[in-house]
Amino acid sequence: MKKYVLIIILLAAVVLVSGCLESADEPSELETPDIASLTYFADGISFEYPESWITYTEDLSPDNSVLVLNPESQDEEGNIETVVAVQVTNLPDGQTLEDTFNATYESAAEDPNFVIISQRVLSIDRIKAYENISQVEEEGVQKKKRDIWLEKNGIIYVIRCGALTSDFDQEQINFDLIISTFQIQ
Asked: 27-184 in CATH: which number?
């Protein structure tokens, strides 16, 4: 009887563990949160963002296409702490997106104020994408960042989501909205 109980427990453990593991071969899909949103459409990209957030496109660096800001995250000095930036740049000659992604975070990890928390592969708009979640200290402030990298026709698109460490988890629904609806035209 003990033998059968042991076998049943072992089989149950195998079933539980197999249901919790993600296949490394198949990129995971994000679900689109059901929240009130607006649509951004310009410069060959589109995505939805929370309707209470604002977009900013003026005076950005050449690689930044748009910033999407949560005005509710503004601190007493006027800094908005929860920001999503979409950056667009050319894929370096002779490199793959994965090569560029890995080199970027290997270099960043040399900074003692930068810690990689997790990395995974996703599918965004049916395109293989790479996600990096990290924690960084900037000017004495602890922040978490979630970067999504994808490439189409030799162009790299990086969706950079950032918030104070204390706000990061509650902002995931808003980040998921932007990331899951992101499309390259």
From this structure: 3.40.1000.10
